[in-house]
Amino acid sequence: MDFLKKAAASVSGEKKEQKPAGESKDYGDKAFAAISKQSGHKVDDKTAEKITDGARGLYEKFSGKKVDPKYSN
Fold it and tell me: Positions of the region Disordered (predicted)?
């Protein structure tokens, strides 16, 4: 089924961001992408993922609470 979706997207000229299997953008990644875009900074996905993972790690370390995977995985 994915093959058909990719074929349809290539025919229509759409370009989708390719992420490794099982890895999707969570709310933290989307928020970071929006903020960096608004500020005029270009940050690639790999770097953005490292930044948001680091921020999540700091939050969990200092608060002692786990972040819901819905917001940051």
Answer: 1-28
